[in-house]
Write a structure and sequence with these properties.
The protein is α/β, with parallel strands linked by helices and 290 residues long. 31% of the residues lie in helices and 24% in strands. A 5-stranded mixed β-barrel has the order 8-11-9-10-12. A two-stranded antiparallel sheet has the order 2-3. It has a two-stranded antiparallel sheet with strand order 7-13. Bound molecules: uridine 5'-triphosphate.
Length: 290
């Protein structure tokens, strides 16, 4: 096999309405909700950079301009921090900036579903394979889930989805794969279905918000076919590629938190705080559950 084209671009769809986290998400995008000290969107960008990805494309919607500001200089703040000699804070404010020109934004004018959001980035993707991460799915992993997926992609090429085992009663919240030949954590994908009822689900191996996709997925998305929930579904477009291109699932090493929901967001905060010795000690001293 010739070496697969390297994955250098990622699409981060951030145009959803975030209805599950109202009222917190009424005026601020859910991707700007902090987990301990960083907004969700920053975790996704850092995970992408760790995987060797160079170009970040955000698919935004109304009320999302604050994310552009987050990834830009804040001159007034930086000047004041400099004047006051607050070098650590200054370093933190600047540390997360990408190289100029490496982050771009495209607007999804109506929230018509994840598949439609990805299609909105077609002009920036062109003819190269690309990654997708949903920033509200925060994944704690060493290395990060995207790095694990890019490493696999470099061996097998094609399309890759991140999956995890879920209880059967939860299959209707996810895209679910029909598993084929399995080697360790790598599963050949023979089918994909969005939000199946537990009794119809082909397995309990559920897709979470990390993907590596071939550009041909855009062809099906262009047909704007409506799927589950009345939305244009990425799952339906990916399912079209099965049998035509290599298609694998990687049961990644790590823990995924659905931060689009308050219980997942709360658990993510606790889990990430536990990695910090000071916060861990604080939690141990202050929280007693009966
Ligand atoms: P969700 O299914 O979490 O939908 O989207 P949502 O609208 O953001 O949130 P709820 O369910 O109302 O609380 C999964 C990902 O797809 C993006 C979201 O921003 C999120 O990253 N998305 C979804 C879009 O960019 N556009 C859409 O039309 C729908």
């Amino acid at each position: 096999m010739t070496a697969p084209t390297p994955i250098k671009k990622i699409v981060l769809p951030v145009a959803g309405l975030g209805t599950r986290f109202l009222p917190a998400t009424k005026a601020i995008p859910k991707e700007m909700l902090p987990v301990v000290d960083r907004p969700l969107i920053q975790y996704a960008v850092e995970e992408a950079l760790e995987a060797g990805i160079e170009d970040v494309i955000l698919v935004t919607g109304r009320n999302k301009q604050v994310m552009e500001d987050h990834f830009d200089h804040a001159y007034e703040l930086e000047r004041i921090l400099q004047e006051r000699g607050k070098t650590t804070a200054l370093e933190i404010a600047r540390h997360m900036l990408l190289e100029e020109g490496r982050i771009s934004y495209v607007r999804q004018m109506r929230p018509r579903g994840l598949g439609h959001a990805i299609w909105c980035a077609r002009g920036m993707i062109g003819n190269a394979p690309f990654a997708v991460a949903l920033p509200d799915d925060l994944i704690q992993g060493e290395p990060g889930a995207l790095k694990q997926m890019v490493d696999l992609y470099n061996q097998v090429g094609g399309n890759i989805v991140a999956t995890m085992q879920v209880p059967r009663e939860d299959t209707s919240k996810y895209g679910v794969i029909t598993p084929g030949k399995t080697k360790g954590k790598v599963i050949a994908v023979e089918g994909l279905v969005e939000k199946p009822h537990p009794e119809d689900a082909p397995s309990t191996q559920a897709v979470v918000g990390r993907y590596i996709l071939q550009p041909e997925v855009m062809t099906y998305l262009a047909s704007k076919t409506i799927g589950a929930g009345g939305e244009i579904q990425l799952t339906d477009a990916m399912a079209q590629q099965i049998g035509k291109q290599p298609f694998h699932a990687l049961e990644f090493d790590g823990t995924r938190f659905d931060c689009g929901d308050k219980s997942g967001w709360l658990l993510a905060n606790i889990s990430i705080a536990m990695d910090d010795p000071k916060l861990r000690a604080l939690l141990r001293d202050r929280i007693t559950l009966s």
